[in-house]
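We were asked to recover a plausible sequence for a given structure. The inputs and outputs are reproduced exactly as logged, with field labels preserved.

PROBLEM: sequence recovery
POSITIONS: 485
GIVEN STRUCTURE:
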């Protein structure tokens, strides 16, 4: 591992980071483009960078690029804080990430096909039967349904971290309705507008293909007899926290944004209400949870879904992405078995390793977790967004004791992992440029094949010392640059 001096210009307050720094450290010879970006950043005046950062935040808010935070009393629209110092991945680094994500998505789709058909992996004892069939996200309604192209997860977000040696590790999978890709694209647009002098002349892979790629994948799964399929994006509506992203993606895809009330099923076919009358719909990219999708099949009180939609899907008259029941694959307990799942279906070792995981539903895993709670991160298997977890080294004795009781009461709801010394990236903070922990969520689209958006969402923990990067917990984001080879 090589390093670079940091304490000059914009980096005069940066010092020597305690953890692996993605712009100051390199595995082997340093990429000359990374060195060039660092030199350009050093030349910036901090006050000037802050002025540009303020202009960027104002523009993000004016453009409506927000997410909604709900509390017991009200809801607040906030921008996702955007840090102007980019996160850089070399071509070689990206190659590892890309191949690892494609491998993982391929295995996940084969796993989902199997558990909703022959269940060979359960019969062979690779996974505990009750872990799958008793999972709250397992949908018996999906048994025997032959989804187009054998693809259940058309859009996947894989959360990846780097440890103190710079190795990429998978933290969790997001196979239901992964969010955040709108920030990837808008962050790039903002960077080009606000810091053109930093970007000038650099060979960075673009991110603007995403909407076209997603529309093509949706069209590819439409009924075969339809020459020009109508794709729509189904949203729960304006009160959803990610509604901005729904609007953004519909625009990028060039498809209508609809809510459940805009669709109707007649004779097992789906139609969209328009001012010119009913118009056939052949493929639906849904940003609506399974439970609310069809009141005839799931929650009968749902006002957000479309009655008869699943029947139309079963008959092959419409396609739905992501498929119902994909939540089994991103359950945190199933995650612990992903290396075995990859080996079982693909006969390959994982390109991207898991973080070591203890399964608390198993006696050994529970005992280890209870004995080492103060050194571990413990997560509920069904939560996301950084909710419900505890980071042992950062918790008080009272918090640890309370969590220990919860763990004993419902061990099957938890997994534990060691605290990873996440890599850091330079971030503009109140007290100058400081090292802050980052993760990465690459987005993969699967149709006839799997394509990975070059870069992904780099989230940054803005609070000093924090390892929680989620926007709902005070995190921000960076533009992610993948350098061309």
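RECOVERED SEQUENCE:
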């Amino acid at each position: 591992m090589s390093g670079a001096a940091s304490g000059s210009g914009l980096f005069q307050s940066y010092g020597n980071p305690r953890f692996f720094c993605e712009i100051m450290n390199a595995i082997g010879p340093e990429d000359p483009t990374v060195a060039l970006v660092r030199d350009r950043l050093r030349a910036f005046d901090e006050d000037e960078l802050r002025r540009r950062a303020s202009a960027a935040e104002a523009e993000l808010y004016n453009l409506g690029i927000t997410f909604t935070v709900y509390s017991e009393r009200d809801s607040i629209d906030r921008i996702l804080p955007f840090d102007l110092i980019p996160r850089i991945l070399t071509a070689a680094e990206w190659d590892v990430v890309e191949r690892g994500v494609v491998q993982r998505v391929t295995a996940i789709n084969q796993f989902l096909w199997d558990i909703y058909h022959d269940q060979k992996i359960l019969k062979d004892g690779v996974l505990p039967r009750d872990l799958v069939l008793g999972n709250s996200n397992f949908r018996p309604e999906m048994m025997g349904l032959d989804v187009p192209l054998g693809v259940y997860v058309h859009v996947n977000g894989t959360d990846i971290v780097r440890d103190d040696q710079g190795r990429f590790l998978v933290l969790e999978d997001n196979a239901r309705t992964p969010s955040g890709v709108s920030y990837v694209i808008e962050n790039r647009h903002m960077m080009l507008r606000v810091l053109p002098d930093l970007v000038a002349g650099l060979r960075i892979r673009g991110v603007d293909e995403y909407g076209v790629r997603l529309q093509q994948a949706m069209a590819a799964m439409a009924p075969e007899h339809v020459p020009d399929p109508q794709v729509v994006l189904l949203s729960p509506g304006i009160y959803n926290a990610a509604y901005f992203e729904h609007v953004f993606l519909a625009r990028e895809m060039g498809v209508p944004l609809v809510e459940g009330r805009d669709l109707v099923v007649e004779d097992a076919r789906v139609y969209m209400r328009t001012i010119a009358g009913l118009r056939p719909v052949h493929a639906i990219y849904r940003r609506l949870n399974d439970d609310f999708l069809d009141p005839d099949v799931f929650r009968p009180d749902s006002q957000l879904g479309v009655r008869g939609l699943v029947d139309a899907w079963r008959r092959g008259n419409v396609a739905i992405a992501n498929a119902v029941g994909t939540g089994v694959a991103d359950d945190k307990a199933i995650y612990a078995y992903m290396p075995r799942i990859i080996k079982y279906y693909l006969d390959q070792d994982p390109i991207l390793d898991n973080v070591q995981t203890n399964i608390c539903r198993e006696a050994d895993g529970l005992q280890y977790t209870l004995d080492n709670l103060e050194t571990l991160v413990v997560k509920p298997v069904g939560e996301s967004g950084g909710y419900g977890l505890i980071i042992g080294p950062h918790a008080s004795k009272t918090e640890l004791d309370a969590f220990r009781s919860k763990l004993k009461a419902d061990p099957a709801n938890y997994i534990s992992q060691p605290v990873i010394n996440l890599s850091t990236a330079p971030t503009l903070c109140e007290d100058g440029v400081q090292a802050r922990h980052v993760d990465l969520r690459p987005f993969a689209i699967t149709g006839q094949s799997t394509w990975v958006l070059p870069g992904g969402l780099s989230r940054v923990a803005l609070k000093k010392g924090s390892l929680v990067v989620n926007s709902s917990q005070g995190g921000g984001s960076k533009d992610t640059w993948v350098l061309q080879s």
